[in-house]
Amino acid sequence: MAETTFADPTDPAEPEGEHSLGKFRRGPVEFFVIFVSAPPGTPNTYRVDCDDGVGPREVCRFGDDTEEPAIWRGAWNGDPWCPWILEKARELVDRPSLFDY
């Protein structure tokens, strides 16, 4: 499973340059949408992490192309919340920090 980060993308200790686009909540679970840096000329990639009180874990990865399916991790694969999570995550990609509080 991927390490999760919410660091400042200009921080030299964070070579991947990931940065949070915002977060949203459902019940006790917080979901974070992270832009994952990619080489120029390659599609944008985003990661959704969740934290239900035991630390952040990767939920899925997806790109800008809505026709491409998201890649779900572990128990999230096939979870009934998946369509809702992806909908909220794509809204944050379109309007960062829309749900951030």
Describe the overall structure:
The chain is an alpha+beta fold and 101 residues long. It has 1 helix and 5 strands; from the N terminus they run βββββα. The chain has one helix spanning 82-94; strands at 19-26, 29-36, 45-51, 57-63, 71-72. A 5-stranded antiparallel beta sheet has the order 1-2-3-4-5, covered by helices on one side.
Mean pLDDT: 83
- The assigned structural class equals alpha+beta
Residues in helices, as a percent range: 10-25%
- Trace the largest sheet across and list its strands: 1-2-3-4-5
Low-confidence stretches: 1-15
The global form is: globular
CA-to-CA gap between the ends? Answer: 27 Å
Gyration radius over CA: 13 Å
SSE order, as H and E?
EEEEEH
Largest sheet: 5 strands, antiparallel
Strand content: 25-35%
Would you count the extended β strands for me?
5
Number of helices: 1
Q: How do you describe this structure in short?
A:
13% of the residues lie in helices and 32% in strands. The protein has one helix at residues 82-94, and strands at residues 19-26, 29-36, 45-51, 57-63, 71-72.
Draw up the topology in text:
Elements: E1 19-26, E2 29-36, E3 45-51, E4 57-63, E5 71-72, H1 82-94
Antiparallel strand pairs: 1-2, 2-3, 3-4, 4-5
What key attributes describe this structure?
101 residues; alpha+beta; five-stranded antiparallel β-sheet; 1 helix; 5 strands; disordered N terminus
